[in-house]
Amino acid sequence: MVNNKIQAAEENLIHVYNRFPVVLDHGEGMYLYDTDGREYLDFAAGFAVTGLGYDNKELNETLKAQIDQLYHTSNLYYHKSCGEAARELNRVCGMDRVFFTNSGGEAVEGALKSARRYAYTKGTGRYEFIAMENSFHGRTFGAVSVTGHDSYREPFEPLVPGVKFAKFNDLDSVKALVSDKTCAIILEPLQGEGGINLATQEFMEGIRKICDENGILMICDEVQCGMGRTGSMFAWQGFGTRPDILTMAKAIGNGIPVGAFAMTEKVAKYSLKPGDHGATYGGNPLACTAVKKVIEIFERENIPGHVNEVAPYLTKKLDGLVDELDCVVQRKGKGLMQGIEITKPIAEVNRRCVEGGLLVIQAEGNVIRFVPPLIVEEKHIDEMIEKLKRALTG
């Protein structure tokens, strides 16, 4: 039955995902279940999306009520949930103005346009971006253009012009690229797809200083590392380096498709104007209701605080694998966004994990990525380590 379902899907879909032969049916808390009733411990969270885990009853009921009331309307009109979600999201992310999108890629696209529009309005003639090597910002043309992986870029060139790539955590390489044409520097405080690479305090502070001294905008992409995953609501807050523009998505809706880019009032004053940007479904009542409720639950349950309590246990257990297994080279990351570099073929290890009832994802540099729901407990970490060791040593 499962094979028939997989075959039916493959016959009708464009093949852009390397899927595992699993047909998922439902989820509960930290676990997903396939159509045969098999259980999987989820340390992938749909690529760091389901921060509250699966089947959160409070969120479910709130969304059901909103569906019965209103779930789409034109952006020519206001609706209550959009304004409330915007206020709450700006408050927790430390920005002043926000635009809702449908995805992280769209959020990055909006951020890039906002930076170019800012330069245009101010008449600076600036248009270049400095991005980071090993970065990943999405799959739209603009987002791919600032993604620091040749494999993502080359099939679609020529891309958006005016993008230069600096070395992550190397301030001198950034300074060498700065010119009077630089309008923005974009970076992830913690690179995900690029191999779980954490920015240093010196690097984040240095980027902020470079931007301030040269009239350049700082864009932080927190689509993956934001919303509690590093132990603060957004990763930049842990560094104390407020960006001018911030992108987010994934966990802000716990699985409801929603993203956003936000900016300071200073940038908003000279940036996008009516007609410059839009999204038919961006900021719809259902997505905004999800954002508002997710923030409410995060704050009431102190999810970032829980991350800070449980993350050291995950760190200790992963460090233990480095000490115990020759095939585990190093651990890196922060909070509940961590990775281990291994010497074994990662695709084979990932396959064994799935067969053993564990879901993880890989990242650049032969890295296994761990981005579990933020409700994870020590018992789940113990279960994960046991399953992972079998996959690594089998």
Detailed description of the structure:
There is one protein chain. By secondary structure, the protein is of the alpha/beta class. The protein folds into 2 domains: 2-56 and 302-393, Alpha-Beta Complex (Aspartate Aminotransferase, domain 1), CATH 3.90.1150; 70-300, Type I PLP-dependent aspartate aminotransferase-like (Major domain) (Aspartate Aminotransferase, domain 2). Helices cover 42% and strands 19% of the residues. It is built from 15 helices and 17 strands. It has a 7-stranded mixed β-sheet, sandwiched between helices. Strands 1-2-3-15 form a 4-stranded mixed β-sheet.
Task: Show unreliable segments.
Answer: none
Give the count of structural domains: 2
Main sheet attributes: strand count, strand direction, barrel closure: 7 strands, mixed
**CATH class membership of the largest domain:** Alpha Beta
Rg computed from alpha carbons, rounded to a whole number of angstroms: 21 Å
Number of strands: 17
> Termini, distance in Å?
29 Å
Strand order of the largest sheet: 4-12-11-10-7-5-6
Report the principal-axis shape: globular
Quickly list its features:
alpha/beta, single chain, Aspartate Aminotransferase, domain 1, four-stranded mixed beta sheet, 42% helix, 15 helices
Summarize the structure.
This protein has 394 residues and is an alpha/beta fold. It contains 15 helices and 17 strands.
